[in-house]
Amino acid sequence: MYGFINACLKSLVVEKFGEEAWVKLRDQAGVQDTFLTHEVYKDEITMHLVAEACKLLGVKPDVVLRQFGEYFFEFCKRAGYHHMLRTLGGNLSEFIENLDALHSYLSLSYKEMNAPSFRVERNPDGTMLLHYYSDRRGLCHIVPGIIGAVAKDFFNSEITMEIVNQLEEVERTGKKEHVVFLVSSKTEPTLQSFTEKPNTMIRIKEPHQEKRPSVSFTMPRRRWETSKGLVHIGKGKLLKNFEPGYPMKLNIDLKTFCHAFPFHVVFDEQLVVHQAGVNLQKIIPGLQNMNIHLDEYFSIVHPEVTFTISSIRKFINSHFVLQTRSKMMPEAWKDKPMLQLRGQMIWMSSLHCMLYQASPLLRSLQELEEMHMHISDIAPHDVTRDLILLNHQRLAEMELSNQLERKKEELRILSQHLEEEKKKTENLLYAMLPKHVANQLKEGKKVEAGEFKECTILFSDVVTFTNICAMCEPIQIVHMLNSMYLQFDRLTTVHNVYKVETIGDAYMVVGGVPIPVSSHAERVANFALGMIIAAKEVINPITGGPIQIRVGLHSGPVLAGVVGEKMPRYCLFGDTVNTASRMESHGLPNKIHLSPNVYQALYNKCFIIQKRGEIEVKGKGRMTTYFLERNTGVTEQQIMGLCDLEGTDGEESSQISYQPASEAQRSDEPFLIPMNYKDSPSEPLPSSNMSDPQACPTIKPDSESYGSLQAEDQSQDGALDQLKDTNKFDQIEYTEKNMEELDSDSHVDVQVQNLITASLETNIERKDTQTQFCVVL
Hints:
alpha+beta; 23 helices
């Protein structure tokens, strides 16, 4: 089928059900998105689209095809065929009888068109039988939709069509499906409803002074003004039932007739040729012998019926296309295309003969040249002359239109690819910077720093990372960190927290920034629990077992802003960041270390928290800290964003719920199901007015305050001195004093003490990769 049909089907789905329905149908059928109007596509594509549409809409094929038929009529009118269709016939039966002629005309432009054929039989009760012939099976239900729409639009009548027979006719040679429809009118079940012309009529009466019987006739109102200037009342008769007059004898000699109609043939019921036009005899010398049989020299191409007089008379209202048989043509025609004739069959009952008045079927000047024919070979009165010249120009215009259509499709595909690449670029940019910040930078605007009154910051690092680096190849370290960070990054999507940055094995996350939310502590806490679970799947390249991580959390106010122009970074600044880092550095392997602020934020929220006790925190003095154990409101599967069919065993969390993700995941990633935290943004995006001193509260810094993870170049001696001070503080203050407090307050057993000792030793070994941090006041 031509792409016009598939384009109509796409337009129907998009207009009735939306663009998303078409995309889904297109993907299920495995077809392209756009169809070129004059391009030929396989019938299987259309059949597959119809079958998938039935599945998608949950309706039977006949319903879909009938609706498609109704829409196809409207689609043809929009495509510019309205006037052509409207002038096919004055009533419904004439319209159907001339459909084959319309298809014949369209075949001049659409050479590969294989259109169905129609035949009408009128019944005495006012109904009619519509015979439908097609090479394609299963599409007959389109016909009631098309014919019903035509009757309603053009002839203002409602009809019903039902299938009364489906059979294979012996007269047919090529068509595979023959369906007979019974067509009846809902309003006026008479023959007149299918045969009368829907025009307004005027009754005209002759003047009284003529003293003649009044003569009435009907005439369309819109043509009356033209007609009254040509017709003089009283000089001739205009009758409603016209009866033509015939001469007593045919006033034309035989030679003149054969020259005037150079491609006609007269044959009898046995197909014996009695008469032929001169040009037809010139091309086919065998026709000069008037006793030959026509079927020996010609075969019927359209309609596809057997070459018998009964079959021809049955389809007498159709146009007939005859093609010469190659074996009967002269030697000069062996390498040329076979001659095709298109014309009308006229039965002459008085002579018991059939007249075939035809013309050469030529679509362009190129075909005329291929047959070594000339315009002069066609009779001057034959419109085939003009048709060849006009169609040659039309074909050139269609070729230009096809090229424009192809260029348009190429441009659409390029635009679609450009949009996809643009989305990839934006996604990459949004992965590096918050969306609103990235949009401001794209617009060339300056991004001012903003204050966030409440947020929760998380730091994590890998235990004994220095030893791992010393004993492994660099590529092994890269694979280990990449495996770990990929899982952490997916968790940021599940809990909707913002990943600030990573340096080495350190990972920094914040909740409540850049979009303030009241559940920032719960989000980061669940994220931390997911980190502990995910770390068990990352292999330590030295031991072959899972790696161990330390996690620290703290809540408080921060400042956030973009630093730098080349490779800009969104950084956090303030004492809250420093305290969160202290929670991580003073933590234990595979433990989540909480500050008192985080403990207060998570209090009575389905989290099991163990009190660690009072410890000495560098730069902060003594603090009472806690360990986060688990969340009783959700399962581990939910925390990891994976499908959990078992649910939460009847337990419901007061602050979160579980729902599928709305965005599609990448094919190479597991399908993540984000948690829906039942809160709303606590405040609008932070203000960026930093010129007012009151807009930025004073935050008390210390000598180790910093803004974000920052690898700072420094001299070897300075770094060693600072590390010695740090190690001295960690070993003396933390190990000797706080271990006793842990034993008394938190009941830490010997195994936990060993973990603390290993953690302190790790801090000593990492002196060469110690991360330094900066402060912005």
